[in-house]
TrEMBL record:
<dbReference type="InterPro" id="IPR012340">
    <property type="entry name" value="NA-bd_OB-fold"/>
</dbReference>
<dbReference type="GO" id="GO:0003676">
    <property type="term" value="F:nucleic acid binding"/>
</dbReference>
<dbReference type="GO" id="GO:0008408">
    <property type="term" value="F:3'-5' exonuclease activity"/>
</dbReference>
<dbReference type="Pfam" id="PF01336">
    <property type="entry name" value="tRNA_anti-codon"/>
</dbReference>
<dbReference type="GO" id="GO:0006260">
    <property type="term" value="P:DNA replication"/>
</dbReference>
<comment type="similarity">
    <text>Belongs to the DNA polymerase type-C family. DnaE2 subfamily.</text>
</comment>
<feature type="domain" description="OB">
    <location>
        <begin position="37"/>
        <end position="112"/>
    </location>
</feature>
<dbReference type="InterPro" id="IPR004365">
    <property type="entry name" value="NA-bd_OB_tRNA"/>
</dbReference>
<dbReference type="InterPro" id="IPR004805">
    <property type="entry name" value="DnaE2/DnaE/PolC"/>
</dbReference>
<protein>
    <recommendedName>
        <fullName>Error-prone DNA polymerase</fullName>
    </recommendedName>
</protein>
Length: 130
């Protein structure tokens, strides 16, 4: 029996294996504007509007909430494969706050979809049967 990758990291039988140095999304209000941060999570939304001049907007979810990521064209071109195909991403960039919304403006994007594999397995039953 195959077990699909999760469509949310907020609730599940197993904790997500958080990448090192990634800040919890609920804590993104703590670092100052312009601080360099790393966030990681499941890709919920990926948008590349035709009017955005090559900018990609990504919404990531970890077990504590969401993070908004802005990927400018030059960064998109360097990390295209991860931006386009990654089911889970680790993003490093600078915090930007505008009109009460916090964004991470990416300068590095890494595909960490492999970390979801452990979540796609059924949890051990604890009775020696699983």
């Amino acid at each position: 029996m195959t077990h699909p990758a999760p469509d949310s990291l907020r609730a599940g039988p197993r904790p997500w294996p958080r990448p090192p140095a990634a800040i919890l999304h609920r804590d993104l209000d703590r670092p100052p504007e312009g601080a360099r941060v790393t966030v990681a999570g499941l890709v919920l939304v990926r948008q590349r509007p035709g009017t955005a001049k090559g900018v990609v907007f990504i919404t990531l979810e970890d077990e504590t909430g969401i993070a908004n990521v802005v990927v400018w064209r030059n960064v998109y071109e360097r990390f295209r494969r991860a931006v386009v195909a990654g089911r889970a991403l680790r993003v490093t960039g600078r915090l930007q706050r505008q009109s009460g919304v916090t964004h991470v403006v990416a300068d590095r994007v890494e595909d960490i979809s492999w970390m979801l594999d452990s979540l796609a397995q059924p949890p051990a039953r604890g009775d020696g049967q699983g």
